[in-house]
Amino acid sequence: MDNHATQSAEKLTKEEAYFIEPFFTNLDKNVFAAKYLPSEVLGALASRYSRSKKGVRRLFFDEYIKPILEPNLEPADRKSIREAEIMRKELVSFVDYLHEHGGWEAVVNSRRARDFFARWLAAYGDDSIAQMAGAHLFLENISIVATKYLEDFRIGFAPLEKSTRYVRFDEKIGGKWIYFIEPNLAKSKYGRDYVRLLNLLFSRYSKSIEPLLKYLKRKYPQEKDQSDRAYLETMNAKTYDVLRTYLPAATFTNVGFFGVGQAFEYVITKCLASPLVELRNLAKQAQTELKKVIPSMVERATSPRGKIYQRYVQSTEKNLEKLTQKLGFRVQGSGFSELVVELVEYDFDAEVKIVAALLYKYSNLSASEIKRRVEKLTTKERLEIIKTSVDRRQVRQHRLVRAFENTYYKFDIVANLGAYRDLHRHRMLTQERQRFTTELGFDVPQDLISAKLDKAYVDAAKKIDNFYRRVSRKYPEQAQYVVMLGNRIRWYQWENLRELGWEAELRTGPQGHPDYRIVEQEKVRLVAGVHPTLISALKFVDNKSYDLARRESEKRIDKRLGLV
């Protein structure tokens, strides 16, 4: 059995490689860092990256280099032709210079400079200084499992991942579907079944695209004010949103990170302690590439200090797992659970805390004295203060003021892995998940049922459940790779009211996926049950339901493009 672990990096011609080589730490590996590129360029690339099948190096050449080398101009446009020729010469000259001189890295990465920075970090508060240097790191053809672990690191770390809504995941590379073959499972007695079942998921995902798209087009005909482009984009997005439930957590994806040195060091250190081979390998590759751009910031991840920390992480997790089982806090999965959002914890005096915090900035009294006085105010007086703080909010981007961070809510959530993958991106909160599992059942999208395409999906989900239960007894971590995005998992969110407002107002918008819109709507409903006065501050939560998430957004794009 072919035990390939990663897809190959994209192929480039010699000319293409010459023009982009100075801007990346390598051109032939799936983990690499960016060099020299301005933040604005990297931001634009990352935005396109999440909606494209292309890797970031291919995108950079196609969208930034190629238009300069091969401008698409009419022969009569002489002025533009002259300007384009000047720009092409400047590009060639700049790239030639970087190849010849090596730019600033020839200085920064010299032994003398590295020794100096290492001594500086050791002598002058290393963690503080490590927060001031950053890098862009890209990891391509890695599993969804790996991205979730990497994105757990939320402080000083900003990720952007390939979307399941805008990208089809049914392509084959080298005749193989695009997923990670977990080495421990591949070598075990479960190896052949692992490959067979994941091939089954991708095959059925692929075969369902055209019939589902055909059904959806009948159900949602093109509207008069929709261009062909907008209609096709809307229907494709709807199709991929429905069918993503098939995709296993082993699916290959791309993710880009901007992070500060301290965050990268922490990520690498923690991942080197992971029981998953993929994460350990990615950590080693990431450190190799980051040493080329911020060497002093990531060196310590594999130092004696770093190894001590890795042993601490490994032993703590192992001992807590044993204790959890010993005390009976882990039971055999029952096999099915409905979508659940439970409000587990909240502050009984939340209203007093928020109102006191709203007034604190403008008072000269102590916090304790302000709180005592607020406790004596009437409900009407408190409501007036809260309303004053939010009355001028005209759009959701007008964030609630910081005072709304003074009360917290803890939600225990059961929803499908696809919804979790989207909501996991919110970083200004504390969240923890249980392992990906099939034991809580799976969601069957209504559109699959209506299109009479659900039978194959339900059959696949049952086969995956049976396989997961066999594998997870011996390989609980590795078994996560077979879990489908349609399988339900459990996690908690602990967030303050300000972040709840930001998340709920964003994620209940009409363009949102229905699976996570329901979760956010339920969270707001639960908080309204205990704090109706405070929840009135969340003015832009949308409780309606929508058939087509992208329809209105694509119409707005049409207007900007002048297509309608």
Structure description:
The chain folds into two domains: 14-70 and 103-162 and 252-316, 2-Layer Sandwich (Gyrase A, domain 2); 181-246 and 335-347 and 407-564, Alpha-Beta Plaits. It has helices spanning 14-20, 39-49, 56-69, 78-101, 105-108, 111-123, 126-130, 144-151, 183-187, 191-219, 228-243, 261-272, 277-290, 295-298, 304-326, 350-360, 367-375, 379-390, 417-423, 446-450, 454-472, 497-507, 514-530, 532-535, 551-561; strands at residues 31-33, 134-143, 157-161, 172-173, 176-177, 252-260, 340-346, 408-416, 430-433, 488-496. It has 25 helices and ten strands. It has a four-stranded antiparallel β-sheet with strand order 1-2-6-3, with helices on both faces. Helices cover 52% and strands 11% of the residues. With 564 residues, the protein is α+β, with helices and mostly antiparallel strands. α10 (191-219) packs antiparallel against α11 and α16 crosses α17 (367-375). The protein starts with 13 loop residues before the first helix and ends with a helix. A hairpin with a 2-residue loop joins β4 and β5 (176-177).
